[in-house]
Amino acid sequence: MTERAKFVVLDGIDGCGKTTQAERLVQALASETGGEVLHLREPGSTREGEAIRAILLERDHVLSAGVETLLFTAARRQMLERLVVPALQRGAYVVCERFHPSTYAYQAHAGGLDADEVLALLTGWAGDPEPDLVVLLDVPVSRALERRGAPTDRIEDRGAAFQERVAAGMADYAERMERVVRVDGVGDPDEVAARVMSEVRRVL
Which of 1, 70, 84, 189 has the maximum number of C-beta atoms within 10 A of its C-beta? Predict the structure, then answer.
């Protein structure tokens, strides 16, 4: 990894504004640094990851939280090996939508799996390289549901009570892990983007 290269994750509950803020962060980093910025989504970004994403989100599939965790971990490792490591080695910035906080919150905290076992799997099999910064966008579940609209996949189908558990899991992850900051995701997108960029500048 070069001195300039940085790996930043944006995460949060469904409807928190990850994609909007990731796009703005990519633009801001490119403008301020003049460097290459790679925008990724997780699971996905690689051909194999996108295939796994389809399996995870397709409503016809019945998957336990444990199976989901293994599939997310496989997609994440593929993305790290194929895209993140080469990008960092050539000095690029990487902005990724979702990472370990989502698996911890959705599959462990909300899905009923042992949190320590899930963290051990993630850090052991998809933990290198680790992000320089993880930004969790804090948005009340009711507000996020309004933004998101009707569910579009099998995980979004789980409803508001499930999302409340996910939100609690995100908060717990922030308490347990280093390099994680919580940013208020409520407000005008430009205001939120400024809050996010303020945190990102601390690691540049």
Answer: 84
- Nearest CA to 133 among 159, 101, 109? 101
Sign of the torsion angle spanned by Cα atoms 159, 161, 165, 170: positive
Pairing of strands 133-138, 93-97: unpaired
Q: How far apart are CA 18 and CA 3, in angstroms?
A: 26
pLDDT of 53-76, one tens digit each?
A: 999 999 999 999 999 999 999 999
Distance CA 144, CA 15 (A): 4
| Domain range enclosing 46 | 7-201
Return all residues near 187 (Cβ < 8 A) that are at least 6 apart.
Answer: none
Is residue 192 scored above 80 in pLDDT?
yes
d(CA 150, CA 114): 30
- Evaluate if residue 48 carries a pLDDT over 80: yes
Residue 85 lies in a domain: yes
Domain of 169: which CATH number?
A: 3.40.50.300
Q: What is the DSSP string of 140-175?
A: -HHHHHHHH-S--STTGGGHHHHHHHHHHHHHHHHH
Measured distance CA(55)–CA(62) in Å, rounded: 10
Give the pLDDT band (50/70/90) at residue 148: confident
Q: How far apart are CA 164 and CA 176, in angstroms?
A: 19
Domain assignment present for residue 177? The answer is yes
Residue 1, domain member (yes or no)? no
Domain count of the fold of the chain:
1
Q: Above 80 in pLDDT, residue 3?
A: no
